[in-house]
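User: Hi! I have a protein structure encoded as tokens and I'd like to know what sequence might fold into it. I'm fairly new to this, so please keep things simple.
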């Protein structure tokens, strides 16, 4: 009987121990809310949600709730609104250019403040071009994820019909104009049925204009995000060129060109050349009803494109356990294999050099060589326009660009006004 009681006691103790362990495990499970944006066509939401589900299978102690929050600007607004309400996300993909704004809002925590110095070596795995607007003040604030450059797409059938080499896009601004003239098609009444060139001037107008400015030999801001050079002579020339495509050369629609509909217009043969993010590559590959080419943007004084897209940020309000779990999630989402697959599935640039050495990426590029264009263009890229109070500064520039392309202001006057507004906004940061 004593032996029986002893056995029961041991069994009960073991059961209690297991119960306590289970309870501890449940108590230690970390729950993260993850905000992410979508600014291109294609099934991005499903891809992100699928990646998150796979992460949770491999990390059962971390629960991640992905929340699609709109385009980038909407996602930033929702994240900051949630912050002010006391319930910010734990981790979010926001524009790399939002870095200064998030720091000024005291919204995010640097990775250096979560990890030990010896654990920060992983940040060296990413392309330096993407890290240039992920770090400031000696700290890393964002980890590249949904990153891009602008690339040029063209309809090979339209090129062939115009007597152009379908395998060769324009290499410089002069060729863009000359090819654009041959590619612009009018019906018997003189109405344009196909434009030669479409460069969006809504949504991310500042980004497209920045590409032209870079190509013309000028950068629009300083490295500290405290000064802009919107009205520099070379910048004015760049905006004048954009306006001239429509009003002088008549190879592009007059007025604004919508970011969201530019790919659809390309698919519907309303334009023969378009500029847009490489993040649209898979969308174009899936939906273009004709063979297409992809190339670097045409040069003027130099080739070039701004980098673009989003970084992973970790919000400051998170607990130490949540911050650690968020880092684990970010590192998993941006590992070489995941970065490669993300690039294959979306067209965004795989954010680390070792991703190109994965079997999946090697096979993909071998079969679809244009997938390497955006990556190779990184050699000529500069950081996307990023300043303190970036939303207001870029809005001033967006407004100037739209005023110029609609003809309500001359490019020089529009950029002069934008520069004055930017200086007013940034005055308190330049001291």
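Assistant: Happy to help. Inverse folding works backwards from shape to sequence: for each of the 431 positions I chose a residue that suits the local structure. Here it is:
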């Amino acid at each position: 009987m004593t032996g029986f009681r002893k056995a029961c006691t041991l069994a009960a103790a073991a059961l209690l121990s297991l119960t306590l362990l289970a309870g501890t495990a449940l108590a230690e499970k970390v729950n993260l809310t993850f905000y992410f944006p979508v600014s291109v066509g294609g099934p991005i939401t499903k891809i992100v949600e699928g990646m998150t589900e796979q992460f949770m299978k491999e990390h059962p102690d971390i629960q991640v709730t992905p929340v699609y929050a709109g385009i980038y600007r909407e996602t930033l607004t929702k994240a900051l609104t949630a912050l002010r309400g006391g319930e910010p996300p734990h981790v979010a993909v926001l524009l790399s250019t939002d870095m200064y704004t998030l720091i000024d809002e005291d919204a995010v925590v640097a990775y250096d403040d979560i990890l030990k110095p010896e654990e920060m070596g992983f940040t060296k795995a990413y392309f330096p071009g993407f890290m240039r607007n992920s770090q400031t003040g000696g700290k890393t604030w964002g980890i590249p994820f949904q990153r891009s450059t602008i690339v040029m797409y063209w309809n090979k059938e339209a090129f062939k019909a115009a007597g152009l080499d379908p395998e060769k896009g324009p290499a410089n601004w002069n060729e863009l104009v000359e090819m654009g003239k041959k590619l612009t098609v009018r019906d018997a009444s003189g109405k344009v049925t196909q434009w030669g060139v479409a460069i969006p001037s809504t949504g991310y107008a500042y980004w497209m204009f920045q590409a032209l400015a870079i190509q013309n030999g000028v950068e629009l801001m300083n490295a500290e995000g405290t000064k802009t050079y919107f009205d520099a002579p070379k910048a004015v020339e760049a905006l004048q060129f954009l306006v001239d495509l429509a009003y002088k050369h008549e190879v592009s629609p007059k007025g604004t060109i919508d970011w969201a509909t530019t790919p659809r217009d390309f698919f519907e043969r309303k334009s023969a050349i378009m500029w847009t993010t490489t993040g649209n590559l898979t969308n174009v590959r899936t939906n273009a009803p004709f063979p297409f080419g992809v190339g670097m943007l045409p040069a003027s004084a130099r080739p070039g494109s701004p980098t673009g897209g989003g970084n992973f940020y970790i919000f400051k309000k998170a607990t130490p356990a949540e911050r650690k779990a968020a880092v684990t999630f970010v590192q998993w989402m941006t590992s070489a294999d995941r970065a490669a697959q993300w690039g294959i599935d979306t067209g965004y640039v795989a954010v680390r050099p070792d991703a190109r050495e994965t079997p999946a990426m090697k096979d993909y590029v071998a079969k679809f060589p244009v997938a390497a264009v955006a990556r190779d263009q990184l050699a000529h890229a500069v950081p996307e326009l990023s300043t303190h109070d970036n939303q207001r500064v870029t809005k001033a520039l967006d407004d100037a660009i739209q005023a110029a392309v609609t003809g309500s202001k001359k490019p020089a006057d529009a950029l002069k006004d934008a520069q004055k507004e930017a200086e007013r906004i940034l005055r308190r940061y330049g001291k």
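A useful reference point when you look it over: The domain at 29-148+308-380 is CATH 3.40.190.10 (D-Maltodextrin-Binding Protein; domain 2). Feel free to ask if any position seems puzzling.
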